[in-house]
Amino acid sequence: MQFLPLGTQVGFEPSKLGKLWNALAKLALHIGIPTSKDVTVNQYGDVEKIACKVREALAEIREVSEGTLAFVGIGGQEVSFECSCGAKNKRRLELLNDGQTVNCIRPNCNESYKYEQADMSFVRRVFEVVCSCCNYSNSIPQNIIDKLPTNRAYLLICSGCGENNYLSWELNVVQRTMPLTTD
What local confidence, expressed as pLDDT, does residue 173 receive? Predict the structure, then answer.
């Protein structure tokens, strides 16, 4: 029998990462509560203890990150699609649900797709913005809108005329002119 190496998988214990997180929080993020008014409170933790725990956490994270495989099993039918950024995205069919949102595998890509089970296709999720100058309809990734902070604007340069359009979330108060009915 000939074996074909697929990669390496480094196992890790989520509870260990949780314990490291809690230890770092105790050492570096939280100030101790004094037991009486005579007890002084140190504003900063012990630098050596913090550095030691950070090194321990980094070693654990490095070990996990060195694995080249990240999946729950081999086998099953696989479907794939190419993102508009050029990345080939693969998913196991048995793990997909109709209407499920699937993000591109590239960390810096804002594209996402809706899986349609009827024809096993992935439809790009977009937000249509009509240019305020030329009425051209511009498509931007829906994730940009979903992640847009309330205190920031997104600059969209119109593909039709090159005009700058700014998108931002805005809170409006609408006054009712007619009474509500409970029909």
Answer: 82
50 neighbors 27 (Cβ within 8 angstroms):
yes
Closest CA relative to residue 90, chosen from 121, 74, 110, 82: 82
The answer to whether residues 117 and 136 belong to one domain is no
56 is a domain residue: yes
Does residue 181 lie in a domain region? Answer: no
pLDDT over 70 percentage in the chain: 87
- What is the mean pLDDT of the segment spanning 31-47? 76
Tokens of 103: 């993000």
160-173: pLDDT as tens digits: 999 999 999 888 88
In this structure, are 120 and 135 located in the same domain? no
Residue 98 belongs to some domain of the structure: yes
Sign of CA dihedral 105, 120, 115, 136: positive
Instruction: Extract the runs of DSSP E, i.e. beta strands, from the chain.
Output: 78-82, 88-92, 101-103, 112-116, 121-124, 126-130, 137-141, 154-157, 164-167
Residue 96 lies in a domain: yes
| Per-residue confidence (pLDDT) for residue 137, from 0 to 100 | 97
The residue range of the domain holding 52 is 14-34+43-65
Q: Using one digit for the tens of pLDDT, what is the confidence trace for 9-25?
A: 666 677 888 888 888 88
H or E, element range at 58:
helix 47-65
How many domains is the chain partitioned into structurally?
A: 3
Amino acid letter, 58: L
